[in-house]
Amino acid sequence: MVVPPDNDVLWARSLNHAFGGSPALCGVSLGVREGEILAVNGPRGSGKTTLLRCLSGQIVPQQGEVWFNSTPVHTMGALNRERLRRERFGWIGPDPQLVPELTAWENAALPLLLRGSSHRKARAAALEWMERLDIGRCARKRPRALLQSQRQRIALARALVTTPAVLFADEPTATLHTADRAQVLRTLTTAARSHRITLVLASHDEEVATLADRGVSLVDGRRITSVHDAETEGRAECSLSV
Ligand SMILES: Nc1ncnc2c1ncn2[C@@H]1O[C@H](COP(=O)(O)OP(=O)(O)OP(=O)(O)O)[C@@H](O)[C@H]1O
């Protein structure tokens, strides 16, 4: 068995996954360094979501390996993967998927409440993140009374409230207007940097490339190297070696 490099918090080797015989990932390998912001680019249907779902343990690739901090994720049972996701990972998708009956702060605090944190602690942590994300004034409102951009920030607060080791963001700005997109992306990347949260960010948004440390590109489930990727990889390596 090949052991992953020490400085990679996440490492994937030769991932292959198909849905009903249609390949979604074909031999994708990559490493993600601790605290890095990695952009995953590619056109619709190129395998970005499938890659993030494999890396985060939501699905087990049909072939290949996924490692988190030198622990093999691909050989874990469903319960251990579930625990890993709950305790170490965060996820934000294109749709906020808030619980309509709960207030904004209760939605943001949900991962802590489910972990058994006290109501007071969970509320304080949720409100702190909501203030940082500039939605503190929405705390007592229910999702239906909020704008889509506010709802997506609540989902962001919910993903960040546990300070995950790795945050997976799958098209987090897809349902937002252009102005909101830029702001949510900047907020997300700033929060990740200030808390040293590793961020794997799949997006069509061109601004992502300027905010990430490095990018990988997928086409038809395969990893390709573009000139831009080679440049950004080079930049990341240079900045690490300074
Ligand atoms: N649950 C599923 N069942 C069947 N096919 C799927 C499923 N999920 C993904 N696929 C297929 O796998 C391929 C890769 O899809 P995936 O969602 O990973 O790509 P993507 O790059 O994230 O696309 P998008 O930008 O549209 O979200 C596509 O052909 C898609 O139709």
Automatic annotation (TrEMBL):
Alphabetical list of InterPro entries matching this protein: AAA+_ATPase (IPR003593), ABC_transporter-like_ATP-bd (IPR003439), ABC_transpr_LolD-like (IPR015854), P-loop_NTPase (IPR027417)
Molecular-function GO terms, alphabetical: ATP binding; ATP hydrolysis activity; transmembrane transporter activity
- Alphabetically ordered keywords of this record: ATP-binding, Nucleotide-binding
Q: Does the keyword ATP-binding apply?
A: yes
SMART domains, alphabetized: AAA (SM00382)
**Which segments constitute the ABC transporter domain?**
10-242
Question: Does ATP-binding appear among the keywords?
Answer: yes
Q: Pfam families per the record?
A: ABC_tran
* A GO cellular-component term linked to this record: plasma membrane
Superkingdom of this protein's organism: Bacteria
The family annotation for this protein states: Belongs to the ABC transporter superfamily.
User: Would you tell me the protein name for this molecule?
Assistant: Putative ABC transport system ATP-binding protein
Q: Which organism is it from?
A: Streptomyces wuyuanensis
What taxonomic classification does the UniProt entry list for its organism? Bacteria, Bacillati, Actinomycetota, Actinomycetes, Kitasatosporales
